Amino acid sequence: MSTQNKPFKKLTTHRLLEMKQRGEKISMLTAYDYSMAQIIDAAGIDVILVGDSASNVMAGNETTLPITLDHMIYHATSVVRAVERSLVVVDIPFGYYQGNSSEALRSAIRIMKESGAHAVKMEGGSEIKESVSRILSAGVPIMGHLGLTPQSIYKFGTYTVRAKEEQEAQKLIEDAQLLEDCGCFAVVLEKIPAKLAGQVSQAIKIPSIGIGAGPNTDGQVLVVHDMLGITKEFNPRFLRRYADLNQVIDGAVKNYIQDIKNGSFPNMDESY
């Protein structure tokens, strides 16, 4: 669909850089399906992340590791169909880029060609430098991801705050600079001390997007199911719930059941 006559500008990686330069915060949420993506895109979100968190909130897995590339392309395709304004970024899932730059390039190209997404996201710093460089050399934009990297949960053994120690904090800063030097257009900083997140944001020219990283990043991201209160069990300190849709949906379904049981739905006005 052409956006030439639309009352908005399409979000691009360059526009995100301009937003950082003028101090405008960047808003980002996840989406995994057409209906939700259409709502949050129309509301004016800057970036939509088709996250591998779909493994948790859509498929019910304990971690993000089981989700496949085909699954991610399916979700991304559904989201892209709905979006007119937002920049759509897609996670490359675990096992499709670590340790093999050729496979990483194939994975990124499949996502871009088959879904129509605008960029991919990858977890890690110096460990994945070769894959990052190879994907960028093919013209595919990359958003990095440092700090708590959920694809490495079995390595860390915990979802606790990362980079509290000086050595890990210094590596994180160096990795952020490395990702910028390679050509990444932005970096997510997950669950690290707010002071460190501010230092990283000042040390790099590309935008930083925080989740559990305090207010000093260039933008913020949350999982939409968490932010809307659809999920109930996940309650980290950084999560602010803007609605309680779990309760709303529960009440609506119970009313629906009751109306069927007592014969009040459908009534004659709802019949042909």
Strand-helix topology:
Elements: H1 13-21, E1 26-30, H2 34-43, E2 47-50, H3 54-57, H4 69-82, E3 87-91, H5 101-115, E4 119-121, H6 129-137, E5 142-147, H7 153-156, H8 166-182, E6 186-190, H9 194-203, E7 208-211, E8 219-222, H10 224-227, H11 245-261
Helix pairs in contact: 2-4, 4-5, 5-6, 8-9
Describe this structure in words.
By secondary structure, the chain is of the alpha/beta class. The chain folds into two domains: 13-241, Phosphoenolpyruvate-binding domains (TIM Barrel, Alpha-Beta Barrel), CATH 3.20.20.60; 244-272, no CATH class. It is built from eleven helices and eight strands. The protein has helices at residues 13-21, 34-43, 54-57, 69-82, 101-115, 129-137, 153-156, 166-182, 194-203, 224-227, 245-261; strands spanning 26-30, 47-50, 87-91, 119-121, 142-147, 186-190, 208-211, 219-222. Strands 1-2-3-4-5-6-7-8 form an eight-stranded parallel beta barrel, surrounded by seven helices. α9 links the parallel β6 and β7 (208-211). α8 packs parallel to α9. The longest helix is centred in the middle third of the chain and has 17 residues, at 166-182. The radius of gyration is 20 Å and the shape is globular. The two termini are 36 Å apart. The model has no long low-confidence stretch (mean pLDDT 94).
Highlighted features:
alpha/beta, 8-stranded parallel barrel, single chain, 8 strands, about 40% helix, about 270 residues, about 15% strand, globular
